[in-house]
C-alpha cells in the first residue's frame, strides 16, 4: 500500500495537474493497480 500511496501522491498527482493524455494514462494505471489489489 505504501508504494501505491507514493505513486498516487507524486506521479498521478503531477500528471493530473499537467492534464492531457498523460493524466488519463496515469489515472488508468492507478485504477488498474487498485483493482489488482482488491482482487488479491
Task: Outline the fold blueprint.
Blueprint: H1 2-18, H2 20-39
Helix pairs in contact: 1-2
Key terms for this structure?
single chain, 40 residues, mainly alpha, 2 helices, flat
Shape: flat
Cα separation of the termini: 13 Å
Number of helices: 2
The secondary-structure class comes to: mainly alpha
* Strand content bin: under 5%
Count the strands? Answer: 0
Please outline the major beta sheet. none
Low-confidence sequence ranges = none
Number of domains: 1
N-to-C order of helices and strands: HH
User: Rg to the nearest angstrom?
Assistant: 10 Å
Considering DSSP H and I runs of 4 or more, what fraction of the residues is helical?
over 70%
Would you kindly provide a written description of the structure presented here, covering whatever features stand out?
It is a single chain. The chain is mainly alpha-helical. The protein contains two helices and no strands. The protein has one domain. It is 92% helix and 0% strand. It is flat, with a radius of gyration of 10 Å. The mean pLDDT is 89.
In short:
With 40 residues, this protein is mainly alpha-helical. It has helices at 2-18, 20-39.
